[in-house]
Write a structure and sequence with these properties.
alpha+beta; 2-methylcitrate dehydratase PrpD; 60s Ribosomal Protein L30, Chain: A; 2 domains; two-stranded antiparallel ribbon; 2-methylcitrate dehydratase; MmgE/PrpD_sf_2; MmgE_PrpD_C
């Protein structure tokens, strides 16, 4: 039986709708505002960097309908859903975008594309877009806290599922929908949520499109809700609701979603990645980088054994022989053995370490073949992402490194300057002006303070 907190007899969507409709920009915690500005900086920089990749070109070709909405880094505009899809797909494409501790989910690459497209298509005030950005991220992250590991366990991508709902909520907020319209928006959005994780089998591209698809789905759902299209009111807690469909192994407790709305800000708790790969591999790369800093070289390694959380195994460790020899550069992003090898060999794992040539490098593949794991029953995943490597060397010594939390997360955040440097490096990698990261940072901050209609057109030639 679904557990409800003791707020009232209202449905979950009604409680959320009433809060969203009553929220003002002044109600938003400054930490949530700052994290949102960082999210815009990180997301747009990544999306522009991926425009000319093979998957970026494919998305642009598939969704070519012209319009007045900005595709970041591209002079030619698109209609709203196409812009949201392209921006979201490119932003998530390198798996370098922000995430969330508690449920590994990428709100930024769904919420920012959806709200920017809505802002331009519907001529919304910039301040309302800013409010929608925070609302969308808040709802997305809180939904993830309810799901925990269960959505991944069921074979679905949390970013695709919870992201659709967050995008719908954020656009509804920016449109200043009534509580009734917001309830319908959320009810409709759940029927648009989709995204399976079978890409893990062969490193194909569908995970990349999940963020973009969720962004345009949330936008469309909000437009339908605003028009009076009816959606189920028990969309979250119902027998056939969101969690029954996408997290069937749990009885959802909605306290993390509904408690302390407006005082506990999960939008302030997003995490930013220092490495261009899967979230749970990041602390292990930090360990590998420190092994390199201690002077340990690949030829000295006999084997490396990692203590891991059980919930990460099916995505990052198994089948082990496949993860030790990933077939594509994209598959390597979800291979703990390869990312650890990259960290020890290169001292990092940025975009350059995930080219096809880098992934096929014989030294990297030989070292990845020496990396294995054991499940640690005391691992804190998904509440905390940790790393522990035990390296056995050819001279018989054993060296260990530990990373107690996700660097870039709440416990060890990256600064605004570090995120600006990251954006600059990503733009430069794609042949753009790295100095444009400062312009992007200023644009992100201006959204909250502008009295004008939202306009993302300054981003059309970012770094050109």
């Amino acid at each position: 039986m679904t557990q409800m907190n003791d707020q009232s007899n209202a449905t979950v969507s009604a409680t959320l709708a009433n809060w969203i409709a009553g929220l003002t920009l002044d109600d938003i915690d400054p930490r949530a505002r700052s994290a949102t500005e960082d999210t815009v900086l990180d997301t747009v920089g990544l999306s522009v960097a991926a425009l000319d990749t093979d998957y970026g070109r494919a998305a642009r070709t598939a969704f070519a309908t012209p319009g007045n909405c900005t595709v970041w880094g591209l002079p030619e505009g698109r209609e709203s859903a196409a812009a949201a899809l392209i921006n979201g797909t490119c932003g998530h494409g390198e798996d370098y975008d922000n995430t969330f501790e508690g449920c590994p989910m990428h709100a930024g690459v769904v919420i920012v594309p959806a709200l920017f497209a809505a802002g331009e298509a519907l001529s919304l005030p910039a301040r309302d877009v800013a409010r929608g950005l925070v609302v969308g991220t808040e709802i997305c992250n809180r939904l993830g806290l309810v799901a925990g590991k269960a959505t991944h366990k069921a074979g679905f991508h949390p970013t695709a599922i919870m992201g659709t709902m967050g995008a719908a909520a954020g656009v509804a907020a920016a449109m200043r929908q009534t509580p009734e319209q917001i309830r319908d928006t959320l009810g409709v959005a759940a029927s648009m949520a989709a995204g399976i994780i079978e890409y893990l089998a062969d490193g194909s591209w569908t995970k990349r499109m999940h963020a973009g698809w969720a962004a345009q789905s949330g936008l469309r759902a909000a437009q339908m809700g605003a028009a009076g299209f009816r959606g189920p009111q028990t969309v979250f807690e119902g027998v056939h609701g969101l969690y029954a469909a996408f997290a069937p192994s749990i009885t959802p407790d909605f306290a993390p979603l509904l408690d302390d709305l407006g005082t506990r800000w999960e939008a302030a708790n997003v995490a930013f990645k220092p490495y261009a790969c899967g979230t749970m591999t990041q602390p292990f790369i930090d360990c590998a980088v420190r092994l390199k800093a201690r002077g340990i070289t690949p030829d000295q390694i006999v084997r490396m054994t990692c203590n891991v959380g059980e919930g990460t195994v099916h995505r990052l460790w198994e089948p082990l022989d496949l993860k030790q020899a990933p077939p594509t550069a994209y598959a390597a992003k979800f291979s703990s053995p390869y990312t650890i090898a990259a960290g020890l060999i290169h001292g990092g794992a940025g975009l350059a370490e995930f080219t096809e040539a880098a992934v096929q490098d014989p030294e990297a593949r030989a070292l990845a073949a020496k990396v294995s794991y054991v499940i640690d029953p005391d691992d804190e995943y998904p509440l905390n992402y940790t790393g522990h490597i035990r390296a056995e060397l050819t001279d018989g010594t054993v060296v260990e490194e530990r990373q107690p939390q996700l660097r870039g997360g709440v416990k060890e955040p990256l600064s605004r300057d570090e995120l600006r440097d990251k954006a600059a490096a990503n733009l430069s990698f794609a042949g753009r002006r790295g100095e444009a990261a400062a312009e992007l940072s200023s644009f992100a901050a201006s959204i909250f303070d502008s009295d004008a209609r939202f306009d993302a057109s300054p981003l059309a030639r970012l770094g050109a």
